[in-house]
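User: Can you predict the 3D structure of Tritium exchange subunit? Sequence below.
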Amino acid sequence: MEDKLMLMIPGPTPVPEQALLALAKSPIGHRSGDFSKVMADVTAKLKWIHQTENDVLILTASGTGAMEAAIVNFLSKGDRVLVGDNGKFGERWGDVCDAYGINAERVKAEWGKALDPEVFRAKLEADTNKEIKAVIITHSETSTGVMNDLETINSHVKAHGKALIIVDAVTSLGAMNVPIDALALDVVASGSQKGYMIPPGLGFVAVGPKAWEAYKTANLPRYYLDLGKARKDAAKNSTPFTTSVNMVMALQVSLGMMQKEGLESIFARHLRHRNAARAAAKALGLGLLADDASASHSITAVVPPEGLDAEKIRSVIKKNFDIVLAGGQDHLSGKIFRIGHLGFVSDRDILTAVSAIEATLQQLGYTGFTPGAGVKAAIDKLS
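Assistant: Sure. Here are the predicted C-alpha cells for Tritium exchange subunit:
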C-alpha cells in the first residue's frame, strides 16, 4: 500500500507528525532573532536529555560527523588511544583515528559480544607514564545490538586520571540512561535520526571541562568541525555556519514531546520493547546475537533458523507488510536481521513487527514454533 512504510530499523527511525509539520514550515533566517529564540530553547532541552550542565553543540552533519568532531577537537597526531572494537561502529572509530594519524590500539571483542572492561583496566593501569590520551567506545553497538559496559569502563578511565573518555551514544542517547554529568563523561557524540525522533542531518557533541582543556593543545586540522567555533556561537544562541533551520525546529518539537514523556518513562519504554522483542524471538525458536546481560535497549539482532537466509526474511516482510527491518553488516550479512525499537516506537509497533515476522516465517515454511507464540511472548512483556 502506498505511503504505508513502517521503519523498524536502528535509524532512520519513525518521525512523529508534529515534527514532520515543523519540517514542512517555511524556513526562517538562521541569523534572525526568532531563530535565536528557537536555538536557546533547543539548547536547554538538549542539556536536559543529555543530563548535563555543560556544552551540547549542534552540527549540521550525520552521527559520523559528530564522531569525527569528537576526535579532531581533542586529540593530536601520534596520540595513543584505546578504541573499543566489537562491531561496525567501534571499527569506524579506529578508522577515523587512522585517517588522522592517531595511534589507535584496538581493544577487540567478537561481534555480538560486549567489550571486556578488565582489558581496559589492565591497559590503563599499565600506563604508568600516562601516555594514553583517550579511551573511545561505542555505548550501544548498532551493528550487533550489544550494549557495552560504559559505567565500568569509565570508572577505569577515571582511575587513570589523564585519559579522556569519548563515547559514541548514537543509539543510546534518548533511549537509554546516559547520565553525562553523573559519570563525568568528557565527550559524547550522537545523531538526530535515532532516539531524537527526527530525520538524519544533525549531529550533537556534548563536551565537558576536561575535554575543553585538551582542546587547547590539540593540533589536528579542523574548520567546519571546530567545536571551539560552535561553542562561541552557541553562547549567542547561534551557529558558526548555516544550520539546517527546519531540522532544528523539528528537534524543538521532538524534544518537547520527550520532556512531556519524561526521562524515566522513555528509558522504561525502550527497556520494555527490548524485552518484548527478545522474548518474541525466543518463543519463535530464533537465536539472539547478544546475550541477555549485554543486550541494547535500542536494537535486537536476531539469528534466523538454519536454512533461512536473513535477507530473504527481510525481503518478504518488506514486500508483504511494508515493514523494513535492518540486515547484518559485513560478515554478518545474510546471517542476522536487526529490529530497531528506538525513538518514536510504541507497543503497537512492536506487536505489528512481531506478527509480520511470524507470518513471514510461516510463509517461508519454517515450523519451529507454535503459531501466535511470538505475539503472546511479546504481549506478556509489554503488559
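The chain has a mean pLDDT of 98. The two ends are 31 Å apart (CA to CA).
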